[in-house]
Structures are given as structure tokens and as C-alpha cells.
Specification:
Elements lengths: L5 E6 L2 H13 L3 E6 L6 H11 L3 E4 L6 H12 L8
Parallel strand pairs: 1-2, 1-3
């Protein structure tokens, strides 16, 4: 049996999260949503991402703060999350 792929969607745009979640869920993916504006604590966000262990991360940074944009940099520098596209 194939492993269910896990997708993390991080965004402050509820409509975007709904559409992406609907699409990916319909294609058989396990979807985890995280509100970008609740991600002010970058370290907590990174720990949450590690715990979920997604196969891919969709990070919407259109209206993000500098700290929130740093989430991507931190993930790419961490050996357990650096491989996640």
C-alpha cells in the first residue's frame, strides 16, 4: 500500500487554504493547515512542522512579516527539514 502524502499549507488567506485543502484532500493527500498570522513564533512553527513531518510545504508569504519569511530559511538550514520541497 502506498504511503499517504502529507502537505502542510501555511497561509493567512483562508480562501487560499480552503481551495488548496479541497484540491489536495480530493487527490488523497493528508492536509495540515497552519495560519501564517499565528506563526509569529517562528521556533514554535518550525517545531510544529517537524512534528507533522510533511512531504511538501506550501508557504504563502504574500503578506508575511520578516520573521515569518525566515521560516523557510530555518527549515532549509535544519537537517531534518532541509529536504522538504
Amino acid at each position: 500500500m502506498d504511503k499517504i502524502k502529507r502537505i502542510l499549507i501555511v497561509s493567512g488567506d483562508e480562501k487560499l487554504k480552503d481551495v488548496l485543502s479541497f484540491c489536495f484532500d480530493g487527490w488523497g493527500y493528508e492536509v495540515f493547515l497552519q495560519n501564517l498570522y499565528l506563526s509569529q513564533n517562528v521556533i514554535a512553527s518550525v517545531e510544529s512542522i517537524k512534528k507533522f513531518s510533511p512531504d511538501i510545504i506550501v508557504l504563502d508569504i504574500q503578506h508575511a512579516s520578516k520573521e515569518q519569511i525566515n521560516i523557510c530559511k530555518i527549515l532549509k538550514e535544519n537537517f531534518t527539514t532541509a529536504f522538504i520541497p
